[in-house]
């Protein structure tokens, strides 16, 4: 009895789950805002009435907007935000580098090449397969980096460098293809800036499967991930096999990233700003924070997408512009506070 | 009646004109790096003076298509053809540098600016006529275009406002009334739903939201992305679009390939496509 209680107390000192509860609550509020606002504003009470099947709900057209457009878009934003923020945090831990982001290992360039191949295809019939191409491109780029670095994860830095080289190589081919097909510049450009305009239930369905699997794995190994902060010798003495954990972590984080990129293009900055924000605000560096980071990432992207849909309404603003425009200054404030605390 | 006679006469003249070899001093080795200029040059009778056109100049089929790029022109590749006049688009990569490099090689350069209005398109044809020694034929082409277009607009006259959506690609980019394409729709007095989003893009090509299109309920949808594989059936299946008037009444028009993005004599065909669509929407 006493042992159990002490275990709980210890856990609380590592991570305070009340922070997670606050993050979840905020996500719900932001989600409701995201569902309600747009070129066609839907009243909260009418949304609830419609969902509960009561009279005086939304009109037929508003219902269709809510169910076919809003809900999948808000859900996709949440999924992508959660996936990118969590993978960012995991990459930062694995590479012991605060600047690591989900696109570090060439996933972004690989996905970019895949997407460009789909868009510039001469017959134009590959466009529907764009997510598949982007997904395969991201996975392939990371795999190639993986095998070229040879020693796998004994040296995270060599993996990082080969990832950067593979990324540059993929970018070179992508730029060449783009140059050869100038008519496809705009679609490629808007894909690179990231967009949730293609959200549909089908996209939500397949992306949620991969993202949930990846996040479940990462959450499950969050305790062992903390062991990576130690030297490898110390980690071994605590019963953690650092190489094994690094391999699992990078595979799962890459799966999440590739899925997010395939569903929404290259949305930047979420993977850097959200982990640092959560760690900065909570004053904790543990990976027990991963579920909270996922929730905050989800909320951040739903909010950014709300901006993308409303700021220039009825036109669309690329979501990547908002994540970086809002994220960067926010990030700098957190960084500065952290530095002051450290002094 | 009088207009009809002029029209008939100008058609006759067009048909009987023998390709006249340019007078001395006129360029005899022209390279066109603009698909629209290529169409203009062949229509005004300068076709025989053209020795090479860029890789996108696919009309008319008699144009000597090459691998030259209009988007990223290469001075050496152009010079290898020993041209005496090069038509260059002002939006080509480093257009000014390319122009001065060619001029250093004593090659004349005709810089073409993408037109904003029909009048701009006509003045390009006139300018090409002057530059190539085909001015009178160029003027005939213009008067014929003017006649046909005004006729098409007159027959498509309607009294109630008609809401239209011009789709550039399947991510819902569109063109406002300030653009060249937009001016064509404005000539028919159609209500362009992209205009509400004009502030989003200074060039007049905003990306619209699906919801906004559902809300404004356009009566005709024009697909200039039909050439990229977008079909009316695919548009009808988009989430939430089944209630849109254009979808319900099957008023989704697949525009012919290249026509909406060229400002040459085939503009008449673009006007005709729109007129036909309006006619069946009535």
Report on the architecture of this protein:
The complex is a heterodimer of chains A (343) and B (282). With 343 residues, chain A is mainly α. Chain A has a single domain (15-342), classed as ABC transporter involved in vitamin B12 uptake, BtuC, CATH 1.10.3470. Chain A has 15 helices and no strands. Chain A has helices spanning 2-14, 17-36, 44-52, 60-94, 107-120, 130-148, 156-180, 185-193, 201-220, 222-227, 232-237, 242-264, 270-282, 290-310, 319-342. In chain A, helix 4 (60-94) crosses helix 14 (290-310). Chain A is globular, with a radius of gyration of 21 Å. Chain B has 282 residues and is of the alpha/beta class. In chain B, strands 2-1-3-4 form a four-stranded parallel sheet, with helices on both faces. Chain B has eleven helices and eight strands. The two termini of chain B are 27 Å apart. In chain B, helix 4 (95-104) links the parallel strand 3 and strand 4. Chain B has helices at 2-16, 35-43, 75-79, 95-104, 118-132, 135-155, 180-187, 210-216, 232-236, 245-248, 267-281; strands at residues 30-33, 50-53, 85-89, 108-112, 163-167, 191-192, 220-223, 252-254. Classes of the chains: A mainly alpha (343), B alpha/beta (282). The interface between A and B is medium-sized, with 32 and 31 residues.
Question: Averaged pLDDT of chain B, please?
Answer: 90
For the largest interface, the chains and their residue counts are:
A-B, 32 and 31 residues
Overall domain count of chain A: 1
Helix content of chain A: over 70%
Helicity of chain B, as a percent range: 40-55%
Ends distance of chain A:
41 Å
Helix-strand blueprint:
The complex is a heterodimer of chains A (343) and B (282).
Chain A: H1 2-14, H2 17-36, H3 44-52, H4 60-94, H5 107-120, H6 130-148, H7 156-180, H8 185-193, H9 201-220, H10 222-227, H11 232-237, H12 242-264, H13 270-282, H14 290-310, H15 319-342
Helix pairs in contact in A: 2-4, 2-14, 4-9, 4-12, 4-13, 4-14, 5-6, 5-7, 5-8, 5-12, 6-7, 6-12, 9-12, 13-14, 13-15, 14-15
Chain B: H1 2-16, E1 30-33, H2 35-43, E2 50-53, H3 75-79, E3 85-89, H4 95-104, E4 108-112, H5 118-132, H6 135-155, E5 163-167, H7 180-187, E6 191-192, H8 210-216, E7 220-223, H9 232-236, H10 245-248, E8 252-254, H11 267-281
Parallel strand pairs in B: 1-2, 1-3, 3-4, 5-6, 5-7, 7-8
Helix pairs in contact in B: 1-6, 5-6, 6-11
């Amino acid at each position: 009895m006493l042992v159990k209680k002490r275990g709980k107390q210890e856990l609380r000192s590592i991570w305070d789950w009340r922070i997670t509860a606050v993050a979840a609550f905020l996500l719900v509020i932001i989600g409701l805002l995201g569902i309600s606002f747009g070129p066609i504003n839907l009243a909260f009470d009418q949304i609830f009435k419609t969902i509960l099947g009561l009279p005086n709900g939304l009109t037929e057209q508003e219902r269709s907007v809510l169910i076919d457009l809003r809900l999948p878009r808000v859900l996709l934003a949440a999924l992508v935000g959660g996936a990118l923020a969590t993978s960012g945090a995991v990459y930062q831990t694995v590479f012991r580098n605060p600047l690591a982001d989900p696109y570090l290992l060439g996933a972004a360039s690989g996905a970019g090449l895949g997407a460009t191949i789909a868009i510039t295809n001469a017959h134009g019939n590959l466009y529907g397969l764009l997510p598949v191409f982007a997904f395969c491109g991201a996975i392939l780029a990371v795999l190639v980096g993986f095998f070229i670095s040879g020693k796998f994860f004994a040296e995270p830095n060599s993996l990082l460098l080969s990832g950067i080289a593979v990324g540059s190589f993929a970018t070179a081919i992508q730029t060449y293809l783009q140059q050869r097909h100038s008519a496809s510049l705009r679609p490629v450009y808007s894909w690179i800036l990231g967009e949730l305009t293609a959200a549909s239930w089908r996209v939500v369905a397949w992306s949620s499967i991969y993202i949930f699997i990846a996040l479940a794995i990462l959450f499950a190994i969050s305790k062992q991930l903390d062991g990576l902060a130690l030297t490898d010798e110390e980690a071994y003495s605590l019963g953690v096999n650092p190489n094994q954990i690094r391999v699992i972590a990078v595979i799962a984080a890459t799966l999440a990233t590739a899925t997010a990129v395939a569903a929404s293009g290259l949305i930047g900055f979420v993977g850097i700003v959200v982990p640092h924000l959560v760690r900065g605000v909570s004053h904790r560096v543990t990976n027990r924070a991963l579920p909270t980071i996922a929730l905050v990432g989800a909320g951040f992207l739903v909010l950014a997408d709300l901006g993308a849909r409303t700021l220039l309404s009825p036109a669309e603003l690329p979501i990547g512009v908002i994540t970086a425009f809002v994220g960067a200054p926010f990030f700098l404030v957190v960084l500065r506070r952290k530095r002051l605390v450290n002094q | 009646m009088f207009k009809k006679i002029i029209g008939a006469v100008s058609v006759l003249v067009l048909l009987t004109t023998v390709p006249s070899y340019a007078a001395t001093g006129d360029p005899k080795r022209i390279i066109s790096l603009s698909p629209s200029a290529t169409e203009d040059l062949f229509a005004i009778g300068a076709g025989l003076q053209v020795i090479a056109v860029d890789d996108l100049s696919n009309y008319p089929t008699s144009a000597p298509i090459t691998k030259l790029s209009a988007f990223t022109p290469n001075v050496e590749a152009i010079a290898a053809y020993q041209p005496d006049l090069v038509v260059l688009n002002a939006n080509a990569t480093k257009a000014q540098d390319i122009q001065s490099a060619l001029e250093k090689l004593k090659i004349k350069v005709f810089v073409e600016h993408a037109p904003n209005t029909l009048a701009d398109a006509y003045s390009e044809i006139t300018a090409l006529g002057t530059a190539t020694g085909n001015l009178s034929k160029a003027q005939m082409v213009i008067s014929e275009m003017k006649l046909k277009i005004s006729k098409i607009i007159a027959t498509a006259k309607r009294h109630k406002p008609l809401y239209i959506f011009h789709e550039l690609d399947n991510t819902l980019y569109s063109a406002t009334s300030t653009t060249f394409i937009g001016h064509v729709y404005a000539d028919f007095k159609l209500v362009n739903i992209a205009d509400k989003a004009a502030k989003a893009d200074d060039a007049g090509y905003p990306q619209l939201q699906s919801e906004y299109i559902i809300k404004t309920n356009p009566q005709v949808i024009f697909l200039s992305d039909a050439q990229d594989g977008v079909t009316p059936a695919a548009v009808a299946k988009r989430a939430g679009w089944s209630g849109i008037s254009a979808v319900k009444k099957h008023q989704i028009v697949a525009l012919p390939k290249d026509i909406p993005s060229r400002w040459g004599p085939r503009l008449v065909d673009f006007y005709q496509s729109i007129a036909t669509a309006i006619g069946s929407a009535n």
